[in-house]
Amino acid sequence: MAQEQSLPPEMVLGIFDINIINVVLQLIKYNDELSPADMRRYIAGYLTHTPLQFLGLMQ
Fold first, then answer.
1. Closest CA to 23 of 2, 40, 3
2. pLDDT tens-digit map of 10-58
3. Residue 54: which H helix or E strand, with range?
4. DSSP letter assigned to residue 1
5. How far is the C-alpha of 25 from the C-alpha of 5, rounded, in Å?
6. Cα–Cα distance between 17 and 32 in angstroms, integer?
7. This prediction's pTM
8. DSSP class of 53
9. What is 8-41 written as a DSSP string?
10. What angle do CA 14, 18, 20 make, to 5 degrees?
């Protein structure tokens, strides 16, 4: 855990930026099926849950 906390802030922000852009791009692919409220909910979920939680493998 200590190693994760030692990541340089610019690296953390760079990774976050790329990942949030990819989330938005994936949601745009489903534009006809998702409402703006759905998209906001999915983005908020991405920001607050781990991938393992989304897959139901962790609480």
1. 40
2. 998 898 899 889 988 988 888 789 888 998 998 998 889 888 887 888 8
3. helix 51-54
4. -
5. 28
6. 25
7. 0.63
8. H
9. -HHHHHHHHHHHHHHHHHHHHHTTTT--HHHHHH
10. 115
